[in-house]
Write a structure and sequence with these properties.
There is one protein chain. This protein has a single domain, classed as Rossmann fold. It is built from ten helices and eleven strands. By secondary structure, the protein is of the alpha/beta class. It is globular and about 55 Å long. An eight-stranded mixed beta sheet has the order 4-5-2-8-1-9-10-11, sandwiched between helices. A three-stranded mixed beta sheet has the order 3-6-7, with no helix packed on it. The longest helix is centred in the last third of the chain and has 20 residues. Helix 1 packs across helix 10.
Length: 310
């Protein structure tokens, strides 16, 4: 570990985004391992309301009880957790220490990576409602370990919806995973533009809110968004030609990826068999990616949206 970058990400909240099939959750596992190996206290928050299996990929036998249950369930099912679009009011008691959270609500991998699950809707039955309340938990929840605020990696639902809900406003950095498809490139361009607009002060849509206080609160969330910038990572890259095509397509929109994760066939088998992720090639790439990210943050390099990295 380089002394000038040591601990630069301590206490940060990183959000990982990408379209379905981009390898977003794989990147989350590899990032968590790489950061843990660099002596960070790492907590993964699984905020994907439909995808399952992250605990197996991390080497955790059983998934923890969801934070949605901890906070009393979603409003659509008679609980108290609301959608941030309809109700931007922050989640109560969202910042807590590990000692305050009952052990049923988190798991720990053999490497010492903590896993929390925001919530799943797969078994809630027909008409259970949207997963907006899960997005609110993902937006607001922060955990402090015995060594202070740990580094949290939030694995968001695939697609653009959670971003449109403003989940990124309480992140420090966004990491967007781009696989070799036109759809993935298009989503990366849209995501980059959205972050640009937020940093330029463009307010969120609030015409659906009748209470002026909620309008003001939603506007403030975006106006004072914590997010500093967004980084793009190429994933499942199988050749130099594929990498060149992706870089060219993104470069036309002023997007310069910070790293590349090569295609690793062992990953697919691990997910299929539900066992700890075996990815020697990809893990090497992500180890280098994390080092590059630390150097970028410590040197003041600009992110893809042009914001100075501090």
């Amino acid at each position: 570990m380089k002394s000038e970058t040591k601990g630069i990400l301590e206490g940060a909240r990183l959000g990982v985004f990408g379209k379905g099939g981009s390898g977003k959750s794989t990147a989350v596992v590899l990032l968590a391992r790489a950061l843990r190996n660099r002596r960070y206290d790492v907590c993964v928050l699984d905020a994907d309301s439909t995808n399952v299996g992250l605990q197996h990929a991390l080497g955790i036998t059983e998934p923890p009880v969801s934070l949605l249950d901890f906070y009393g369930g979603m409003v659509f099912s008679g609980g108290i957790v609301t959608c941030p679009v309809d109700d931007p009011i922050p989640l109560a008691n969202a910042e807590m220490s590990l000692e305050e959270l009952p052990s049923d609500y988190y798991g720990e991998s053999p490497q010492g990576i903590l896993l929390l699950v925001a919530g799943k809707i797969g078994r809630m039955g027909p008409g259970a409602g949207c997963d907006g309340p899960i997005a609110k938990i993902a937006r607001d929840f922060q955990l402090e370990t015995s060594h202070g605020k740990g580094l949290m990696i939030v694995d968001f639902k695939a697609g653009f919806e959670d971003s449109a809900r403003g989940v990124f406003t309480n992140l420090d950095w966004m990491i967007h995973i781009v696989d070799p498809t036109r759809a993935s490139v298009g989503m990366a361009i849209d995501m980059n533009e959205m972050v640009k607009q937020v940093k330029a002060g463009v307010p969120p849509a609030t015409e659906h809110l009748e209470d002026p206080r909620l309008v003001d609160l939603a506007t403030r969330f975006f106006k004072y968004a914590r997010v500093k910038g967004i980084f793009f990572v190429l994933n499942r890259v199988d050749s130099s030609e594929t990498e060149d095509l992706l870089r060219e397509s993104l470069g036309e929109q002023g997007i310069e990826p910070i790293g590349v994760i090569r295609d690793d066939p062992s990953i697919r088998r691990s997910w299929l068999e539900g066992r700890p992720l075996a990815a020697p090639v990809a893990q090497t790439d992500v180890d280098l990616l994390v080092e590059t990210l630390e150097v970028a943050l410590s040197s003041g390099m600009k992110s893809s949206v042009g914001a100075a990295v501090v």
